[in-house]
Specification:
heterodimer; A: mainly alpha; MetI-like fold; 74% helix; 0% strand; globular; B: alpha/beta; D-Maltodextrin-Binding Protein, domain 2
Chain lengths: 538, 331
């Protein structure tokens, strides 16, 4: 890792307002988490329920192993895919990129069922094997293997999307130099690509770890039993079954503690001088074995990541759609989801830019951590704790029922959920801009707004487009908090899907899942395109 | 319509709505999500009751019955709820112990239960039995007891729900505990190789089963009726177990803190009318608590011959230990 000379801090433009705004957002988030936990503790009125029945250490160990493996596999798969996609050009490439990116924002339940549609007992692979050989091909999908597979599909494809954006940002000049030096495919990756990826890996790794660490529906659906479980499940049980709120808060604190350690490690990582900006379609192709390997990686990626999602589309789109499409409830939910997604996307981008620019302007690593770490907080707080806290806070504020406050709570929760992803996406390029052009900015005497408008925004708008798409889709697919709030009139698509599933209507649920996936893919193709750098003027 | 017109219309509506609502008293009903959802009995019951009560019915939902009870407990005497719909045998003891529920004062003489219904706080609005559902084409000879199930090769898979997060999951634990007593851990250990997975809720488990991932799913004896009536699909049945089946009675009660006690009582009474019972049976897919005669479709499977009673007292004394033992056996 290339360490920055200390003197580089002197080159940073002074931006007290940015630091203040970033600190305010960070403090706001941290205070919200604190308030949620404190409110729940106050509500327990001191009576200690029966001692917790949870073996915390055993749970922690199992969860850490699972999350560690999920992270490692996702990063490796993501890097390989990003590498292949960066080099290859083919018809439908953008769709493939969109499909991959949509995985992480699809409800875990949908991905799990997609996985089963391919690899399950009644899945495509098994049916084909049965037809061809007369022998079923039993893939052990339930247990740690199934959990890992689903997590890698969700998170590995997402990693690929973020890392691809970094690779696509390699400046032309560097590529031309590399090409004229005749770098081999491996040298090209090690010398040109890896430094670009390096800055994104800690944040990305932390996010994937946290997602896997707190995973709930996938772990229960594919886990095969109570042996494979996460703390999040235990916290849910403590709140719901035992009504042991004190115990739930204690477990939540353990979870937040572990997650905080991971977050601190990631955010404390020294900023890497990544370069930003777009490169046009490169004409530099790798040759021979490397090229073949790229096609192989892509094919495996399509089979592994694409097929389960295609299965969701295939199962959902059919004659059964008509009965759903005539329901006003469906259109109502679609409208709510789209509006919520748009609002959440904008809120997320604003918060991420505030935090990202403040972090980049911070001179010390302590300040960077203080500003950056709370952005990840939401991933560490169990949804059931958050919704319980929101319920109590809203009540304390005097609202009749939390349903009336549901839109605001869901909006905030969705934006906070996307925030870590947004900061991980926007943070490295913003750091890079400040560090590589700090002197220029100072010598031109630009003020903060000019710096943003003329220097930073043109260089990060590509990432901003990704952030908007991501936050929009996250909100579209979220079933975490909304399912726990009493929201009869405020229904989103995922909630409608879960209700259909709960009313024996598997077909309707399948259709809704397909619609959500479709909207997600379209959003991921269309929104970043709006923010593509218009190259003619550059 | 121009934006200006739209904005004008919208603000007019905003002014008009509250005045309409204020004319009528509001009955706040807490229930679980799928009861109030558009596919559940909620909307039709609301319409039916509003016709006779001169009031407005509002649903506030929770994920499930237990979460609903937690909500009421957290709110205590200041709860805006008038009626709680959807408690059951597994939660009624805890609910009663909170002291938040009033005597229902409703007439329960016409109910199908024997001995006659004597619960002072809660009225029943439907009931069913936990059972394992299977596909008769794929499984011509289903097991007739937990022991027969255990004796099958381990490739015969079942999906069950987690007792910590699901009502049938909890019912299953009570079922095995009540039927086998001290032998329950042994039964759980025997089931372990057959358990494909333990899901969070009924929806996921039933979805896995319908997708063909498992041979049987923990559900209700009434589940096959849905497939016959809504999908004209007669392949599904439940497997009657020799041990007998645990009954789940779904309950409703009025809160002592209600500011509409008379409306609350009327609603509880309404829930037991043939009109409401007919609605509930084919939207909640459970047996009616009053005899509704031909209104109950023939597709409803016959009730099991043997059933096991699990009382509130037994649950209060042993429930937690039973769950712990089951989970330990599955570790």
């Amino acid at each position: 890792m290339q360490l920055l000379p200390r003197s580089s801090n002197l080159a940073l433009p002074r931006r007290p307002l940015r630091l203040l705004a970033g600190a305010a957002v960070a403090f706001g988030i941290a205070a919200l988490v604190g308030l949620v936990l404190a409110t729940i503790l106050t509500a327990t009125s001191g009576d200690s329920a029966a001692p917790s029945r949870v073996d915390v250490w055993q749970l922690l160990r199992m969860t850490a192993i699972q999350a560690g493996l999920s992270t490692l596999l996702s990063l490796v798969a993501g890097t390989a895919l990003a590498w292949a996609l960066n080099r290859l050009r083919f018809v439908g490439r953008e769709l493939v990129v969109g499909l991959f990116a949509s995985a992480i924002v699809t409800p875990g339940l949908v991905v799990a069922f997609g996985l089963l549609a391919i690899w399950g007992r009644a899945g495509w692979v098994n049916q084909t094997a049965l037809a061809l050989t007369g022998q079923p091909l039993e893939v052990p999908l339930f247990g740690l293997g199934g959990i890992l597979a689903a997590h890698v599909i969700l998170d590995g494809a997402f990693a690929a999307r973020i890392l691809l954006a970094r690779l696509d940002a390699v400046p032309d000049l560097r590529l031309k130099t590399g090409q004229s030096l005749g770098l081999s495919a491996w040298q090209r990756f090690a010398i040109i690509d890896w430094p670009m990826l390096q800055g994104a890996i800690p944040g990305l790794g932390a996010i994937i770890f946290l997602l896997a660490f707190t995973s709930f529906p996938i772990v229960l659906l594919l886990g095969g039993g109570p042996a494979n479980q996460t703390l999040e499940v235990a916290i849910y049980a403590a709140v719901r079954l035992d009504f042991d709120l004190r115990g739930a808060v204690q477990l939540a604190l353990v979870q937040i503690g572990v997650c905080a350690a991971v977050i601190l490690l990631a955010t404390a990582a020294a900023p890497v001088s990544a370069v930003t900006g777009g490169s046009r379609v490169s004409s530099w192709r790798d040759r021979g074995a490397a090229r073949a390997l790229q096609w192989l990686v892509l094919a495996l990626g399509m089979a592994g990541f694409g097929l389960p999602l295609l299965a969701v589309l295939a199962n959902g789109i059919g004659p059964g759609m008509a009965s759903l499409l005539v329901r006003p409830g469906f259109w109502h939910a679609l409208g709510t989801s789209l509006g919520l997604g748009a609002a959440s996307a904008i809120l997320t981008l604003l918060m991420a830019l505030t935090i990202g620019t403040a972090r980049a302007a911070a001179g010390t690593s302590a300040a960077r951590t203080l500003i950056g770490a709370p952005a990840f907080a939401y991933l560490a707080v169990p949804a059931v704790v958050l919704s319980l806290g929101a319920f109590l806070i809203v009540r304390a504020l005097g609202a009749q029922t939390e349903a009336s406050a549901a839109p605001a709570v869901v909006l905030l929760a969705n934006a906070l959920m996307s925030l870590p992803f947004a900061v991980a996406t926007l943070g490295p390029p913003l750091d890079a801009v400040t560090r590589s052009r700090g002197k220029l900015i100072r010598s031109l005497g630009l003020d903060g707004w000019q710096q943003f408008r003329d220097i930073e925004w043109p260089l990060v708008r590509r990432e901003a487009g990704i952030v908007l798409a991501l936050a929009f889709c996250f909100s579209l697919g979220d079933l975490g908090v909304i399912a726990l709030l009493g929201t009869q009139d405020f229904t989103t698509l995922p909630l409608l899907m879960y209700r259909a599933l709960g009313a024996y209507r598997t077909n309707d649920a399948g259709t809704i899942a397909a619609v959500m996936l479709l909207v997600t893919i379209i959003a991921f193709v269309a929104i970043p395109r709006l923010f593509e750098v218009p190259d003619a003027r550059r | 319509m121009s934006f200006k017109h739209f904005a004008l219309a919208a603000s007019l509506c905003a002014i008009a709505l509250p005045t309409v609502a204020e004319d009528r008293p509001v009955l706040d009903i807490y229930t679980y999500d799928s009861f109030a959802a558009e596919w559940g009995p909620g909307p039709a019951l609301k319409a039916g009751f509003e016709k006779i009560c001169g009031c407005t019915v509002d649903y506030v939902t929770a994920v499930d019955a237990i979460s609903m009870l937690r909500k009421v407990q957290l709110e205590g005497a200041t709860s805006p709820a008038d009626v709680v719909v959807g408690l059951d045998t597994a939660t009624s003891g805890e609910a009663r112990a909170t002291g938040l529920f009033a005597d229902h004062g409703a007439d329960t003489s016409g109910l199908v239960f024997w001995p006659a219904w004597s619960d002072a706080q809660f009225i029943p609005f439907d009931y069913g039995y936990f059972a394992y559902v299977y596909n008769t084409e794929k499984t011509p000879n289903p097991p007739k007891s937990f022991e027969e199930l255990i004796a099958l090769p381990s490739s015969f898979k079942i999906v069950i729900e987690d007792p910590r997060s699901s009502t049938p999951g909890l019912g299953n634990v009570y079922w095995i505990a009540a039927a086998y007593g001290d032998r329950a851990p042994e039964i759980w250990a025997g089931l372990k190789p057959h358990i494909l997975t333990v899901t969070r809720g009924w929806s996921e488990a039933y979805g896995l089963f319908l997708n063909g991932e498992a041979d049987m799913v923990l559900s209700y004896t009434t589940s096959p009726a849905y497939h016959v009536i809504a999908e004209n699909d007669t392949r599904y049945a439940y497997a009657p177990f020799k041990e007998g089946h645990v009954q789940q009675i779904e309950l409703a009660g009025a809160l002592a803190s209600s500011n509409q006690p008379e409306l609350a009582r009327q609603f509880l009474q309404y829930l037991m009318t043939p009109e409401a019972q007919t609605l509930i049976s084919t939207t909640n897919w459970m047996y009616p608590v009053t005899d509704i005669g031909d209104a109950l479709p023939d597709a409803f499977p016959p009730q099991p011959h043997v059933f096991i009673a699990v009382s509130e007292d037994m649950i209060a004394a042993n429930g937690r230990a039973w769950v712990d033992a089951a989970l330990a056996a599955l570790q």
